[in-house]
Design goal:
about 500 residues; alpha/beta; Rossmann fold; Luciferase, domain 3; GMP Synthetase, Chain A, domain 3; four-stranded parallel β-sheet; about 30% strand
Amino acid sequence: MKVANIVQTIEDWASREPDRVVYCEGQVTYTYGQLAEWSDKLAAYLDATIKSKAPIVVYGELEFEMLVAFLAASKTGRAYIPIESSTPKDRVELILSVAQPALIISIGDWQELATSIPITNRETVNEIISAESLIYEKQPVMGDQTYYIIFTSGTTGVPKGVQISHDNLVSFVNWELSDFNLREGLQFLSQAPYSFDLSVMGVYSALTSGGSLAPLKKSVINDFKALFTTLPKLDINVWVSTPSFMKICLMEPTFDGHHVPSIERFLFCGEELPKKTAVELLQRFPEAEIYNTYGPTEATVAISGVLVTSELMETYNRVPIGYVKEDTQVFFMDPDSETIIENGQMGEIIISGPSVSKGYLNNPEKTQAAFFEYQGQPAYRTGDCGRVTEDGLLLYEGRIDFQVKFHGYRIELEDIDHHLSSVSLVKQAVVVPKYQEHKVEQLIAYVVPEAHSYEKEFQLTKAIKESLSEFVMDYMIPQRFVYVDQLLQTPNGKIDRKSLINEVNP
């Protein structure tokens, strides 16, 4: 399978086999024919309703209609921006202010958030897909045009919109289909929110290979009994998730190859795969292939991968992050002198190749700081520290800055600092990660509080968390609060985060 055009490839499956299942949630299934027909109708509506080619926000969870809206936007030459419906209002407002979208398609229940941007709700979408088809001029996203935009955490508190082009996505999809032995017709786990680029690893690999998606929604994930009752029934062939979610699943003793025999391979991305998790998976699923992959959102999901074996685990203390895909180059830079260093020596991982983003939406300053051109190809400074072995295996050595991965989500610690410091009960604050097996297990907030009337610290903590939840995602709220009279400072008068990190990670 070789994909040249994302939209056309999906359309070809719908044309050849309209009854082929594309989405399966329990007893409810949808077909490629429905995906093509419904997205055509919604695309015609978009072209008739809005003239601007600005991005379309698609708001919801893992509903099938979300995929319909994504494809409809793509068919009309527009990028889409997925926003999870549990996103705090403040963050939604910031994303809208940066993106300036032409329209919001709200599949989920829209928050009471005032905006001048027109909104098309789910009821209207259902009316559109139930009506007669309309003729429109199909102009799908192609080449360097932006296919989707994922918003990630920003150091100033303002999220950054990573623009991924059609060609970026094609580079990733072709690599994933070929290097991970993904034949046609497989069923993929769809657990990551569409606003998290890990979801792309399942969605577009499935849609371009005639596969299907099995959504696992938050209501099930948050109910352990329901989760472990549901998993064996999903009939998943390809597992796509963060290592953190897998760690939860391994809490169930019956989650193994005997009880869930349909799983042929596991694909992990989004954060470091702990060696302990990898070893346990090898024991529980001896017949399955387990792949560890690596890549930032800015380089389209992942750019390296490796098959995890017992031999690999015996050789390395940390799970390697893989061999770099054929069309991509990785080199290393000294973060202080910004000079390229020789292979084998540790440095900042720089990614260069056709899957590297064109930059951040409407943010030239941040784009210029992170992206540049190298030997005629776009390049991106990851902020990750790593090195490569003699046979080309990439090894991850941690972050060189204050950005962390927590439960698969990339978080700028300064982003949390910014919003935490704006809480009225907080005078000053800094957030640091606590590690276990080289993986972030907990976010700890050091807080200098304002004068308050709370008798107990836990009461103060509860109040601060409630205020903070109005501005940041749940996964960005620190799990532990430490109250101090003043924060450690460097000789330059800056908050000494590194010393605090060392303090919580002796």
